[in-house]
Amino acid sequence: MAKSLPMIDVSGLSSSDPCDRVLVGEKIRAACLAHGFFYVTGHGIPEGLIEAVMGETRALFDIPDACKDALDKANSPCNRGYEQLGGQTLQEGALPDRKEGFYIGEELTAGDGRVAAGKFNHGANQWPTDLPGFRPVMMAYYAAMVTLSETLMRGMALSLDLKEDYFSGFCDQPLATLRLLHYPPAQPDVPEEMGAGAHTDFGGLTILLQDNVGGLQVCDEDGGWIDAPPIPGAYVVNLGDMIARWTNDRYRSTVHRVINKSGRERYSVPFFYSGFPDHEVACIPTCLYADETPTYPVITVEQHLRSMYDRTYKAAR
Ligand SMILES: O=C(O)CCC(=O)C(=O)O
Ligand SMILES: [Fe+2]
């Protein structure tokens, strides 16, 4: 039987009964130890909002090329806006990714202290002018994703037998990115080209919304690939590099990739929850065995993100 990823109903994390919350933490622990990837239901995100996000995403990628170019993220000091097909190379040494994208973050004005201080990826968005529903839908969804991420980080803390608010410093004024992606069908005559090359995610958690096309694959411990097909009503959640650093790889930042072999257009909307930029990500003492030392040096969220953007965008420049 083909391997599959676990499914977790996380509604218990919002229960007033601590036992309910601990039970979900235990399920998260098992899923993180096994794969670092799991499906989530009971997330509380309204279906209508999800449909609206998918509708606006398709509409965005359907606007004329000249309008996309006007929104190019090269215009933005904080990496917001449109990224053309092949703009990123997630897997070192591979061909550029066969995807186009659009980056959205928290809407911040020049007067915000973090923007004035030149904090990484902080600032204003670029919005399409001819799609009136786009901005309100994306901002509502961004806010809902921040709330869900906070809930899931409490679940992560419980899963590690930590106090539920252990990650509250990380969750303070979090840097996060909503990313709209469009994957044209793979080209049969370029079999080595991928929609997204094999990579790990850079932040804390990723919450992925995908359409019904499929193509996401998760690397197994034995080096094989497990399909993560779309399941209606469920998100795919995966751990990013920060969690591997916190746990000294007890929980892995699992490698994944996308190959769209369906012959159809694929759309997905990952939300990357990266945390407070100045937060120092250091190994959690209880994640070390007695004779073990931390594999990773202490790093701030911002330092790690900057280095990963440098690496994955350098090749495509
Ligand atoms: O589109 C997907 O299913 C996954 C995208 C992804 O892995 C990423 O953007 O980091
Ligand atoms: Fe990813």
TrEMBL record:
Q: In which pathway does it act?
A: Alkene biosynthesis; ethylene biosynthesis via 2-oxoglutarate
Q: Which Gene3D superfamilies match?
A: B-lactam Antibiotic, Isopenicillin N Synthase, Chain
* Protein name, per record: 2-oxoglutarate-dependent ethylene/succinate-forming enzyme
Q: Name one Pfam family in it.
A: 2OG-FeII_Oxy
- PROSITE patterns hit by this protein: FE2OG_OXY (PS51471)
Domain Fe2OG dioxygenase, chain residue ranges per copy: 174-275
Q: What family classification does the UniProt entry report for this protein?
A: Belongs to the iron/ascorbate-dependent oxidoreductase family.
A GO molecular function for this record? 2-oxoglutarate oxygenase/decarboxylase (ethylene-forming) activity
UniProt superkingdom: Bacteria
EC number(s) per entry: 1.13.12.19, 1.14.20.7
Q: What is the lineage of its organism?
A: Bacteria, Pseudomonadati, Pseudomonadota, Alphaproteobacteria, Rhodobacterales
One GO term under biological process is: ethylene biosynthetic process
- Kindly state which reaction or reactions the protein catalyses: L-arginine + 2-oxoglutarate + O2 = guanidine + L-glutamate 5-semialdehyde + succinate + CO2; 2-oxoglutarate + O2 + 2 H(+) = ethene + 3 CO2 + H2O
Cofactor(s) of this protein: Fe(2+)
* Keyword annotations: Ethylene biosynthesis, Iron, Metal-binding, Oxidoreductase
